[in-house]
Every structure is written in structure tokens, then in C-alpha cells.
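sorry for the late reply, my laptop died twice this morning and i had to redo everyting from scratch. anyway the thing you sent over, i finally got around to it. pasting the sequence first so we're on the same page, its 110 residues, then the predicted structure underneath. double check i copied it right bc i was rushing
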Amino acid sequence: MDKDETLTAFAALSQSTRLDVFRLLIKAGGAGMSAGEIGETLNVRQNTMSANLAILLRAGLIRKTREGRSIRYFADMNGLRGLLAFLMQDCCGGRPDLCQPVIQELACDC
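ok and here's the structure:
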């Protein structure tokens, strides 16, 4: 992830509902959730939820899979890893390889 992608991710997460969605999808893990389930859980209207999901998708923080007529959303752990790697690239005296185990541990392969 580069600086512009990181700024896009932070901008996406700087809104309360989108941060809640991202955290909810991390909690859902590999099962993911449909847009309707997310909206119900967070008490957010469908059109508002669709806009927020689109922003998180463009930021690379979530991914989606079509299941028949519905779409299931998941936290994109590769996107999270990329964000963490960018933030930690100069850690440990400029030796990001030392931080890689920490990044992998924080952003599990669910």
C-alpha cells in the first residue's frame, strides 16, 4: 500500500458507520455478512449502507462475493495487512522485516 492508498483507507475509516462496518466484518470473519445483515445489526438504512460499503470497497478494506441474488461482504485482511505494513515500514530502525511477524499476527487469515 502506498501513501495515497493509505490516506484513502484512513478517510474511509474516519466515518463512524464505516468504522463500525469494518469492525463488524472483522468480527464476522470468514462467514462475512450480507449488506442487509450489516444494516440490521448497525441499524443503518439500505441506501446509506450501500454508499458506505462502496467507500470501504474502493479503499481496499473490504471485499465482496456474489451469492445468487445477494452479495456477501468480508473484511479484506490483505488490505489491512497493507495498511499496517505501510504504517510500520520504517519501524525497528528501518528494518520492516522485523515487524512482519507482528503484522501477520494482527491481520490473521480468517
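The mean pLDDT is 89.
thats about all i looked at so far, will dig more tmrw
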